[in-house]
Design brief:
It is a single chain. Helix content is 66%, strand content 2%. It is an all-alpha fold. It has 2 domains: 284 residues, no CATH class; 89 residues, no CATH class. The chain has a two-stranded antiparallel ribbon. Helix 2 packs across helix 9, helix 7 runs parallel beside helix 9 and helix 13 crosses helix 15.
Length: 400
């Protein structure tokens, strides 16, 4: 998820990571009201705008996240040896995964069980809520594998496996001459749109995307799909000409994403729906990179601080989303009002928890995959005006 470049910081990729992190929070708030039944907290009735919005967010955010991760991997391997890269993946991906399972997982699982729901590796089922308290539940969670949950942190498990499995390809891309074409050039605009067809065919051939239960045991088609997105991110880093073409085709790629989403909504599970997922995913990636690359933001202390916060906020955000969902649902608010309240409240709570409980302290920083705090990372998010007034800062190594 890093956006570090070898010589200068890519502020457009920083902005994308911040935007996508917020979009993930919105997606989980929408999921409470969407038709998808496999979630920790659910409203009594589905709301179709939430269903459509969640599908759009899920397709786009996952695609952009994995592409940015692949881009970062190649950029990282240009600066360090493969062994150091693997050590970095352990520290910045595996440590937050296990820390989240042990420290946040009990709260998430408790909320889930209190709602009469049980998500496990084998699938989803409705269960009677427990008749005992959280303190009695906690030792059970920590000693029974079938109770443990990685919840939203499945992304980190998949990311680590893909980062290791594709290391030979990443090394090959990192060692190529800058700007060299990675595959034979396609005529005209076809270069910008070709990956959409490849992703769609991959999903259709393997039966990916539906059903979506990221447990690794029954999810190999989706693992392959995410690996393809990761590899495409590496290609973009190694072959800037492709990214230049995406900037030129940004509006067309946005149209492709909308057409793909329409296919998903109309066709559903099946060949055409999966082709639609591929089109929506690559169209979203291309449009996001294209528009952000056309208008990269000015480098600032605030942008750097928020960019550094994306990984910790991603790790932390699910607890406030679920807690606010439990609090808001009995109030009888409209779905739109509830989604807005949950999204805004969870965003503020996550950023505040990061600022107060993680950012200043060494051990919490390590647990969420961050390195030691440096003087250049000192600007406070609560001093927005001051941070925005600071000129370009010295490029620093971006967090995962």
């Amino acid at each position: 998820m890093s956006a570090a470049a070898t010589t200068a910081r890519r502020t457009d990729l920083d902005l994308l990571r911040i935007a996508v992190c917020f979009a993930v929070i919105l997606a989980h708030a929408l999921l409470i009201f969407a038709e998808e039944p496999r979630y920790h907290v659910k409203a009594a009735e589905a709301w179709w705008p939430a269903t459509l919005g969640y599908e759009a967010m899920r397709i786009a955010t996952l695609a952009i996240f994995f592409v940015l991760a692949g881009w970062s991997a190649v950029a990282s391997l240009r600066r360090r040896a493969a062994g150091r890269y693997l050590q970095d993946r352990v520290a910045r991906v595996l440590v937050p995964l296990f820390a989240g399972i042990l420290l946040l997982g009990p709260v998430i699982k408790w909320i889930e069980l209190q709602q009469g729901r049980d998500l496990r590796i084998g699938g989803f089922r409705l269960v009677p809520p427990p008749d005992y308290g959280f303190l009695e539940f906690l030792p059970r969670y920590l000693t029974r594998l079938n109770l443990m949950t990685w919840s939203h942190l499945w992304f980190l498990a998949y990311l680590f496996l893909i980062s290791v499995a594709l290391l030979p390809l990443l090394l090959w891309l990192a060692r190529r001459p800058p700007g060299a074409a990675v595959w034979p050039r396609l005529p005209g605009r076809a270069l910008a749109y070709a990956p959409a067809l490849g992703l769609g065919l991959l999903l259709a051939a393997g039966g990916g995307y539906w059903p979506f239960l990221p447990n690794l045991v029954q999810d190999w088609p989706n693992l392959g799909y995410f690996a393809a997105l990761f590899a495409l991110g590496g290609v973009l880093c190694a072959w800037p000409g492709l990214e230049t073409r995406l900037r030129a085709e940004a509006w067309g790629l946005l149209a492709l994403a909308l057409v793909g989403l329409a296919l998903v909504a109309l066709a559903g599970p099946g060949i055409w729906g999966r082709l639609g997922v591929g089109a929506c995913a690559w169209g979203s990636v291309g449009a996001a990179l294209g528009f952000a690359g056309r208008h990269p933001p000015r480098q600032s202390a605030l942008l750097a601080w928020l960019g550094e916060a994306t990984m910790p906020v991603y790790v932390l955000h699910h607890v406030p989303v679920l807690a606010l969902g439990v609090l808001v649902l009995p109030l009888g608010w409209s779905p739109a009002g509830a989604v807005l309240a949950i999204t805004v409240g969870a965003t503020l709570a996550s950023v505040l928890a990061y600022r107060l409980l993680v950012w200043p302290w060494g051990v919490p920083r390590w647990l969420v995959g961050m390195g030691p705090r440096t003087p250049s990372s000192a600007p406070s998010v609560f001093k927005v005006a001051e941070a925005m007034s600071i000129g370009p800062i010295h490029p620093q190594r971006s967090e995962t």
